[in-house]
Design goal:
2 copies of one chain form a homodimer.
Chain A (H helix, E strand, L loop, with lengths): L11 H13 L5 H21 L4 H7 L8 H10 L2 E4 L8 H4 L4 H4 L17 E4 L4 H6 L1 E5 L6 H16 L3 E4 L5 H11 L4 E4 L13 H10 L1 E4 L9 H13 L4 E3 L7 H11 L4 E3 L10 H9 L3 E2 L3 H9 L20 H9 L8 H8 L3 H13 L3 E4 L2 E4 L13
Parallel strand pairs in A: 3-4, 3-7, 4-5, 5-6, 7-8, 8-9
Antiparallel strand pairs in A: 1-2, 2-6, 10-11
Helix pairs in contact in A: 1-2, 1-4, 8-9, 8-14, 9-10, 11-12, 15-16, 16-17
Chain lengths: ~400, ~400
């Protein structure tokens, strides 16, 4: 899961350039990324600082180009024990973040048309947890800031349960469901990571300062905004994209009809990651949003820890054999293997049939099928989905 | 929705023959139906009575062939104001019951291989409600005999709500959810029908006798078992097939992991009817079965009356224009029209995309697509589902 750059340590100059790029832009824009891709981060930072850029980039960076000092940012970070993780670093989640670059690649012309924040230029990382270790086996647990007693209780049960199974629980550090998730994982001796909308030196909200301090001491507090940054409404929304992108699956425990947690779920869906929801009483306003996700957006019901493990595990990195590599089923997780086993090799089957045959939730089955399609292991035809074995022997099941 | 036989009134002899056939067999078997189809109900009844039948039919009818007296059954029925509805009668739900004949038609050879009860030979009908009126716009509401207070409350709300919308609520007359559904509809002045596992002269369970009496006075109490029949475990299971078959959709409000309501839901699924479930707390054992249906069998979450109307309405008889008939969209219900509008006319779309675009739950969208496919209005190709307009003008939307 490392990139080729990982063999060469990132130089202090490049790291400072990424720090500059992340801080000089309010959002990671398509235009600045185009510039970075064209001339590299060092030269891109230098041109922005000196104003030798086109009008669009100039417009996006003029307000701060003279004011951002990477050294000062690094010092502020060091004061709270944080560092900046950048592309090329070991543990940089390049694969996880890649879909955030899609809107840029899909642009028709060379300019405009991207309204959302893209891949971050870096992640400020405060805490002992190693990025690669925690992000590859993790799940996001999010929800309303005003949960019911039921919502708090099931958040605690599911978060502690999945932490004991070795998953990092990622959330947003907010009151309510987020805090219940972080707290339960800490209590269970697991690893939890809070992704903040502001700087990692400003533990927000204040009421959770002690909790987030404990998260930073054992797991990590993370942000793509530089130290010293306060929170705004759109920074919360941009932050939600990172929660969705950095985890293989997102669970929404409770959410009202309009809730930030729904924005995280929308991001997860856009990024092709499965979304789980905890059902609740239909008489509870705190479950209106989760039921909406299940009804209208095919989110999968999560009713116990095993469901959550399945949700997150189904998108795990070992789920699909690398294309061109070994096609033995040995390395596959249980969910993927069951979906593959349920597929016919001739004709085809509808996802619902495959789901029923495999005993895997339909939403997860479709997600797995999508990934298997990308890996070239299955195909979709007029009759439905089927397995496209590259030779029977290679697809022989290992004895269980 | 009437058959051609409806023009000719069913003779008393034919009605008596069906009464005999229904009572002489414990279950409506493939072999007896084959005989009826071959020689007609009168001759089939005569042959069975005299023993001039093959070994299989003989085995299925020997125990009762001399003991069943249709006249006596009719008298017993008349005592409680009931009558026998048979194939050919106005209001006989031929279309609704047709899928119950599928297992027989799918038999490889001519004998054996059908383990489930098939189409009934008749329906004993006790109550003023007219069969055609109530069955064509109805929904089944079923669930555990041991519900929570939450389950009872939402059953009452949803049942009364859908009754006010003009739907007949059909259930099984049992304690718990069934009783709550019947009671709420009676209270709302709506029409409710109880389908029993035993005879309509034996209102079972005894504790619900007064309630079922009220149902019989305003709606109907119905059974395919003749008057005088007591209940057995497998009669409950056979009865569940009728609840599922006689309604366009089935709602399960609360159900434990093993619950009779799950068997009704399984029948509904087998018959191609949408299944809805009410979500509840994951901490409640009474919601384990409903969550299972949603997770593993694509049941649709129902959280309010409008969801239930959509579930039942999506399979309404006006949903698809008759093949070869008019293709104007005027006669379509709202759900079907929205699904059609969401379909591309070139390329194709996945059901999930169609569902999202139409704002209709994925489970319902798939059910509608299946029916539209059967009607030849849509097609499914390698790129997904699309509309197959028979000329643009005919598919022009009416102004709304």
């Amino acid at each position: 899961m490392t990139t080729h750059e990982a063999d060469t340590p990132v130089s202090p100059e490049v790291r400072a350039a990424y720090a500059y790029l992340g801080a000089v832009t309010e959002r990671s824009t398509a235009q600045v990324w185009d510039l970075v891709d064209a001339v590299g981060p060092l030269e891109a930072a230098a041109r922005i600082r000196s104003g030798r850029v086109d009008d669009e980039v100039a417009g996006q960076t003029a307000a701060r180009r003279h004011r951002v000092d990477p050294r000062e940012l690094a010092e502020r970070a060091a004061e709270v024990g944080a560092r900046l993780l950048v592309p090329g670093d070991p543990g940089w989640p390049a694969v996880a973040l890649e879909p955030l670059d899609r809107p840029r690649r899909l642009r028709r012309g060379g300019t405009g048309g991207v309204e959302t924040a893209l891949r971050p230029f870096g992640l400020w990382w405060r805490g002992p947890a190693h990025p690669a270790d925690v992000l590859e086996r993790s799940v996001a647990v999010v929800g309303t800031r005003a949960p019911t007693a039921y919502g708090r209780a099931v958040t605690a049960d599911l978060s502690a349960g999945v932490a004991v199974e070795g998953f990092t629980v990622i959330s947003g550090g907010a009151f309510g469901i987020d805090a219940a998730a972080h707290r339960a994982v800490l209590g269970a001796g697991g690893t939890t990571v809070a992704i903040l909308a502001g700087g990692v030196d400003r533990l927000y909200p204040r009421g959770n300062e002690a909790l987030l301090g404990a998260v930073a001491e054992t797991g990590a507090v993370v942000s793509d905004q530089p130290p010293g940054t306060g929170v705004t409404r759109y920074r919360f929304l941009d932050r939600n994209r990172l929660i969705a992108a950095l985890t293989p699956a997102t669970l929404v425990v409770e959410a009202a009809a309009r809730s930030g947690a729904l924005s995280t779920a929308t991001w997860a869906r856009v990024l092709g990651r499965p979304v789980g929801v905890v059902p609740g009483p239909i008489t509870s306003v705190s479950s209106v949003g989760t039921h909406l996700l299940a009804r209208e957006r095919d989110a999968t019901l999560v009713t116990r820890t095993a469901d959550l493990v399945e949700l997150a595990g189904s998108m795990g990195e070992t789920a699909v054999p690398p294309s061109g590599g070994a096609t033995s089923w040995d390395g596959l997780d249980d969910t993927t293997r069951r979906v593959l086993e349920a597929l016919p090799t001739t004709g085809g089957a509808a996802p619902a049939e495959v789901a029923a045959s495999a005993g895997i939730a339909p939403g997860i089955t479709r997600a797995v099928l999508g990934r298997l399609l990308g890996a070239g292991v299955v195909s979709r035809g007029p009759q439905g989905w089927r397995r496209t074995g590259d030779g029977g022997q290679q697809l022989t099941l290992p004895a269980t």
